[in-house]
């Protein structure tokens, strides 16, 4: 894979900063909002939207500076994701997933980074992490085969990250790795016909007996310890944060964004709605005001806890300290409950919006469907994360594993 490819010189840091990117994203929101219904019909985020996000620098936020990236604060990245998802759930979801992958690529060996970005620093990568594939050890790397589902945004990517179990000659599982595979070595199968997040184009990836050099893989056991060979060349604190904490936040943040969009739509609708049964404006109903207050608090709490946990992780890294297991468990607790709070807020608002919210094409019903679709992602499984946190509080020894 990419043997003999010339290594390019790292590019210069672009003439952008995180605030410029955030301002650029804000400018794009009205257009993204206008395209939301069409995005759903297309079953994929329009190429024009992806290109516009690329042009404002969004996909460079977490990319290493040596390849033209910004190495920005993750809070800036997630703020952009939240805002995009408030305008279009599918676009926010795909932006979040594609946008976080430069952070993970930065953990790979430099050889892999050069293969992805050496000739084109705008290269994008999709993923499917569930270990649906099988990899066998061979000289210099692994032979990989399998079929993976839910690769969001794969139409806009020329590489893919795939999770796979590694087997030895005796058929025993010896590792769980992420494999980086170029577009010419995999097939995309169009299967994405769903009721929510319909515009994410989360299709299947098929790989048949592809050799993946070891430099193009990452052990999940290593990343779980906040390690990766790419840290030798990408030495910033950004790349010392906890892998699975960032990735689960990547899944919850768009759902919080969808809740914010639903909230804004609900408030605007109630300003003009007259409740025929009571002959009064909905905005004058005191119970409607209570629902709005409750929903807004849930949304704000979900966001505040997620971002506070990132700040605490950054503080540990800045001090050169290991991120404690208790902190990692709390991050997962707040992440799964952040998703639940956002869902609760959307449900409350949707139920109080009246029959007009049911109409096809209305943003509120789309946000409701998109958020519930995002809720079923494996990262949002609440019982497992909450059980581990609760057990640790009772003094039981807990192995957080990938968490």
Offer a quick outline of the entry.
The chain has 403 residues and is an alpha+beta fold.
Description:
- This protein is an alpha+beta fold and 403 residues long.
- The chain has helices at residues 18-34, 36-42, 47-55, 74-87, 89-105, 110-117, 220-223, 243-272, 286-318, 325-351, 363-375, 382-393, and strands spanning 125-138, 141-151, 159-167, 173-182, 187-189, 203-213, 217-219, 274-275, 280-281.
- The strands form 2 sheets. A 7-stranded mixed β-sheet has the order 5-6-2-1-3-4-7. Strands 8-9 form a two-stranded antiparallel sheet.
- α5 (89-105) runs antiparallel to α8 and α8 packs antiparallel against α9 (286-318).
- The longest helix has 33 residues, at 286-318.
- The chain starts with 17 loop residues before the first helix and ends in a 10-residue tail after the last helix.
Secondary structure: helix percent: 40-55%
Uncertain residue ranges: 1-14
Beta-strand fraction estimate: 15-25%
The radius of gyration over CA amounts to 22 Å
- Which CATH class of the largest domain? Mainly Alpha
Overall tally of domains? 3
**Lateral strand order in the biggest sheet:** 5-6-2-1-3-4-7
Reading the helices and strands in chain order gives HHHHHHEEEEEEEHHEEHHHH
Global outline: globular
Question: How many angstroms separate the termini?
Answer: 31 Å
The CATH architecture designation of the largest domain is Up-down Bundle
Oligomeric state of the chains? single chain
Task: Say what the CATH topology of the largest domain is.
Answer: Butyryl-CoA Dehydrogenase, subunit A, domain 3
Helical segment count: 12
Largest sheet: 7 strands, mixed
What is the CATH H-level superfamily of the largest domain?
A: Butyryl-CoA Dehydrogenase, subunit A, domain 3
Mean pLDDT: 91
Region (Disordered): 1-25
Protein name: Flavin-dependent monooxygenase
Organism: Nocardioides turkmenicus
GO molecular function, one term: oxidoreductase activity, acting on paired donors, with incorporation or reduction of molecular oxygen, reduced flavin or flavoprotein as one donor, and incorporation of one atom of oxygen
């Amino acid at each position: 894979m990419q043997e003999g490819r010339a290594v390019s010189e790292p590019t210069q840091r672009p003439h952008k900063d995180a605030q410029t990117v955030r301002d650029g994203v804000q400018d794009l929101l009205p257009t993204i909002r206008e395209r939301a219904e069409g995005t759903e019909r297309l079953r994929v985020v329009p190429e024009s939207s992806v290109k516009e996000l690329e042009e404002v620098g969004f996909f460079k936020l977490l990319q290493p500076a040596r390849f033209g990236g910004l190495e920005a604060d993750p809070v800036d990245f997630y703020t952009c994701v939240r805002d995009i998802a408030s305008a279009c759930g599918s676009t926010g979801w795909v932006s979040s997933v594609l946008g976080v992958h430069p952070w993970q690529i930065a953990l790979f060996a430099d050889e892999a980074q050069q293969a992805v970005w050496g000739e084109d620093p705008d290269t994008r990568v999709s993923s499917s992490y569930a270990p649906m594939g099988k990899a066998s050890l061979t000289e210099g790397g692994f032979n990989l085969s399998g079929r993976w589902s839910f690769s969001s945004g794969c139409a806009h990517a020329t590489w893919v990250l795939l999770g796979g179990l590694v087997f030895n000659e005796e058929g025993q599982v010896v590792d769980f790795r992420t494999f980086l595979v170029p577009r010419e070595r995999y097939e995309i199968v169009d299967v994405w016909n769903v009721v929510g997040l319909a515009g994410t184009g989360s299709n299947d990836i098929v790989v048949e007996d592809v050799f993946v050099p070891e430099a193009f893989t990452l052990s999940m056991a290593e990343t779980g310890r906040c390690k990766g060979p790419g840290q030798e060349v990408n030495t910033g604190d950004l790349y010392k944060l906890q892998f699975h904490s960032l990735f689960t936040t990547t899944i919850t943040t768009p759902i919080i964004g969808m809740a914010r969009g639903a909230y804004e739509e609900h408030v605007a609708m109630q300003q003009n709605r007259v409740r025929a049964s009571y002959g009064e404006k909905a905005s004058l109903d005191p119970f409607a005001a209570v629902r709005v207050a409750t929903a807004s608090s849930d949304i704000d709490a979900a966001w505040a806890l997620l971002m506070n946990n990132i700040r605490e992780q950054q503080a540990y890294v800045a001090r050169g300290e290991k991120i404690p297991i208790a902190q990692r468990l709390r991050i997962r607790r707040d992440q799964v409950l952040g998703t639940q709070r956002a869902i609760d807020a959307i449900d409350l608002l949707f139920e109080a919006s009246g029959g007009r919210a049911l109409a096809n094409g209305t943003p509120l019903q789309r946000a409701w469907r998109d958020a519930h679709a995002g809720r079923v992602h494996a990262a949002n499984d609440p019982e497992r994360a909450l059980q581990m946190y609760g057990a640790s509080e009772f003094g039981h020894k807990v192995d957080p594993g990938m968490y």
